[in-house]
Amino acid sequence: MHATEIIRRTTAERRQDTLERLGSERDIWVSTAHPDNGPHQVPLWFLWDGRAVWMCTGAHSATARNAAHEARVRLALPDAFDVVLLQGEAQCYSAREVPEEAAEAFAGTFGWDPRQEEAPYVYLRVAPTTVRAWRGETELRGRVVMRDGAWLR
Q1: What is the dihedral of CA 47, 146, 133, 14, to 10 degrees?
Q2: What is the signed CA dihedral for 3, 7, 10, 12, rounded to 10 degrees?
Q3: Is the model's pTM score more than 0.90?
Q4: In which residue ranges of the chain is pLDDT below 50?
Q5: Contact (Cβ atoms closer than 8 angstroms) between residue 61 and residue 67
Q6: In terms of DSSP bridges, do strands 144-147 and 150-151 run parallel, antiparallel, or are they unpaired?
């Protein structure tokens, strides 16, 4: 349970807290959309490499199909008190195309290597262009901590 008194953080503090969470959490909500089928949202494991979020999903999943058709995606860490929302464009990589460093880091983090599965998987890389972070109403103003791919100070 979180304390009821919320102390407003500076942009630099929000940025630092966001980076710490991206580096330590496992799950992220991924929102994609398709013009005919509408929005789709699922939780996936993710890895933050310092510049981008890496995820993996079945090659035939709605998430993979949507991201291939419409690259714009939204991501959210699963905490309604300490909100972190990211948006950017997904780059899709097959298991054969994924950069070795990213695939090895993903496998090392989760103890699972999608490249070894019989069914095909797709790696999604999202370099955020916008990040919003806030705790409670007192932080709604100034919640943008990244704009146009650059962290704010």
Answers
A1: 90
A2: -30
A3: yes
A4: 1
A5: no
A6: antiparallel
